[in-house]
Structure formats: C-alpha cells, structure tokens
Amino acid sequence: MQPNATTVQAVLNHALSTLIKTPLSCMGAGRTDKGVHALQMMAHFDCEQSFDTSEISCKLNAFLPRDIAVKSIKKVQKDAHARFDALSRTYTYRISTIKDVFKFEKSHYFSRILDLRLMNDACQILKNCDDFECFSKANTDVKTFFCQIHKAEWVQTHTDIEFIIKADRFLRNMVRSIVGTLLDVGTHTTSLEDFREIIKSKDRSKAGASVPAKGLYLTEIKYPNTIYSDV
Question: Would you say the pTM of this structure is higher than 0.90?
Fold first, then answer.
C-alpha cells in the first residue's frame, strides 16, 4: 500500500472486499520495484466467511483491471504466510539483442556483443558466495545481507538473452544490480577477479549500474505443500 500511488495490493484488496462483501486485506509474498513484471505472485488473506474459490476467481478477473490477473485461490492453513513461508523465489531478466519495438516495455535492449561463457563463469562465483551487500540498495533496513543462491545462469533464446536466478531471498535492487555487473563482465569491462573483489568489498558503489526494471520478471515462488489445507 502507498499513500500517493495505486498499487496491486490496494486494487486487489478493494476487489476482494467488494466481491466477498466484507473488509479484506491481502498480504503479498514481497515487494517489487516499480516497472518490474510478475508472472507469478502469491498473496494470502484471512476470511471468516465461506465462499466458492473458483467462482470468486472468475468474478475477480472480470472485476480487476487488465494488468492484474488472478490464476487461482486455494485454502491454506490458518498460520500460512505468503511472505515468510516461501522457500525460494526465481527471477528472470530479459535482454533483447536487436531493436524490437514490440519488446520495448518488456525487455532491456542491449546491442553490444556479450561473452556468455564468461558471464556464466561469474555466475559460478555468485553461487559460491552468501553475502551480497554490494548488490543491495543503500540505506535499506534489512538485518542481514546473506542470501543462498540456488541457481544463476545466462541462456540464449533466439535474439534474446535471459538471466535466471533462484534464491531463498533477495535484497532490494539485488537482481538488477547483479545483472548490470554481469553485463560489465560480458563486455570485458570487468574481469572475473574484479567480480570476486566487488562481492568481497560489500560496497555498492563498486558494482555495476542497475539495469532497467522493465526487463525483470518474478517467475516463481515455491512453498512447502504443508501450507495447503487440502493436501
């Protein structure tokens, strides 16, 4: 919720409260920067009133604006939490290597030649580290900068290049600053040894510039099956 801006949470709260006819407030799995896309996002809400989940899902999509879609509603345990019960989150960053006007708002156009092999070598360094303060937005209120990265790799998809990263948690602006730094590696501006030293420094000013939000997608959030009441 933001005092001076429209948010997904505010719009969803209003829609749910209107359709179920009782004041409801949903809690999302996390926040994303303005302009970031979500192919999958989870949220939970508490409701004493019974309702048909399939019917409400259908009505919600008719009620919500075109840029928000509800895929399903499932019953969960009373103590289930969309944010704190998440086991992992996966993001994908999309780069277009040719100028494509239809992808302008959905990917980052980068025309320079990239050394994907070297960038994937840097990804191996990432997976062997656990403190990512150098990639975190300054003046954040987190208590720790430790994250466990399960997957990090670059893949070529026709004229696009995608960076896929999966971790137990992410810091603010972390993925976009990692991508920016890896692009420096891919253009041979930053060496692998430089990349190691950037991480060791814990200094955001030594890492690369953050890439635009429009190329970033939250693609998956994993939960234990035990949170669902019908499993």
Answer: yes
